[in-house]
Amino acid sequence: MVLACFLSAAIGASVALVVGGSVERAQRHARVRRANGVFRVQTGRRMVALTFDDGPDPRWTPEVLDLLHTYHDHATFFLVGRNAEAHPDLVKAEVQARDEIANHTFDHPDLELLSPPAVMREIESGAAAIQRAGAPRPKLFRPPKGFTDEVVGVLANAHRYRTIFWDLTVEHFVDHAGVVEGIQELLEKVRPGSIILAHDGGIPNRSRTVHALPLLLRGLRARGYRVVSVSQLLANARRANVAPR
Length: 245
Known about the structure:
Layout: H1 2-13, E1 17-18, H2 30-33, E2 47-53, H3 61-70, E3 76-79, H4 81-86, H5 88-96, E4 100-103, H6 116-132, E5 140-141, H7 150-158, E6 162-163, E7 168-169, H8 170-174, H9 179-189, E8 195-199, H10 207-222, E9 226-228, H11 230-235, E10 241-242
Parallel strand pairs: 2-3, 2-8, 2-9, 3-4, 5-6, 7-8
Antiparallel strand pairs: 1-10
Helix pairs in contact: 3-10, 6-7, 9-10
């Protein structure tokens, strides 16, 4: 009863923070529009945040870290807790590379289908697993698949997380088209403050993402963009706008 009252009051008072214009079709889904979260940052600086979901994964994460190191760039890794527990060496490698570690739940479920207590367990178990693997307690949160609702947003806020979505997805451009052509199309859509989603874990095979990454990093640099973590991007935000409903 207390939890229900808390959720009702908090949902009524919550404000959605989003920065920037239109988002991809997935973000326009009603479940996403209702949630509190940042999709893009308004900034006068030519910088973007690169994010990776669903890792760490020994098949792809080491290659991603090597490429980021080669290009002197940094990213935010949204880790699945059970993967962090299974591969603490990769979590420590991300920390040592000065990349940012964020929470992507423990088991990667569709949170909007769970009860509020189950959502809380997923968020907190994910954070605990990340800490046990050697990373600081995460401050950023991303719901699996971007699927969320008001309850999930309120619970994330209650645990003092900033919920982060995205406005561009690497796999959207390269999984069903030529990698070179796909990255060129993606680069045409990048704007200052974009949050770019990619994957270093999960299914399907992420080899196309890894193949696309150097093209993306070179292309961003050629256009004068600096690739940073989400927190660095937020620190350079000009302002936050209320999300359209």
